[in-house]
Amino acid sequence: MNPAPVFAPQPSPLKLFSIVIPARDEEAALPPTLRNLHATLLREGVPHELVVVDDGSTDRTWAVLQELRREIPSLNPVQNPGRMASAGPVSAASTTCAATPAPW
To answer: What is d(CA 94, CA 85) in angstroms, rounded to the nearest whole number?
Structure first.
């Protein structure tokens, strides 16, 4: 006798894919990276937000993020006011997760 087949529940459709990117002194790298990510996610039909945490930059990272917001509507830049030099990306991700509300 064969056991009854087990059907796994179907996952609910993706509502929002959030990508969190810590950035420190990345003014040159952010524009092509964010443009490519945004274009790829749009092309694939993935609802998304790009959260970039300026983690204490001393260059134009924050200004570049503000400029990019005009062309990338899903960009959500955040400044980490409490960045500790030794914490790095962990600090940025922790701050963003605590500070960014999401509709799920």
So the answer is: 14
Q: Is residue 27 part of a domain?
A: yes
Half-sphere exposure at residue 87, Cβ-oriented, CA atoms within 13 angstroms = 15
Flag whether 49 is in a domain.
yes
pLDDT, tens digit, 9 for 90 and up, residues 80-95: 987 655 455 555 555 4
Structure tokens that stand for 26 in this block: 């990345």
Q: How far apart are CA 96 and CA 92, in angstroms?
A: 6
Which DSSP state fits 13? P
Residue 30 covered by a domain: yes
Backbone φ and ψ of 80, nearest 5°: -95, 100
- Between the two ends of the chain, the Cα-to-Cα distance in Å is 43
Q: Bin 37: left if φ > 0, else alpha if -120 < ψ < 50, else beta.
A: alpha
Residue 8, domain member (yes or no): no
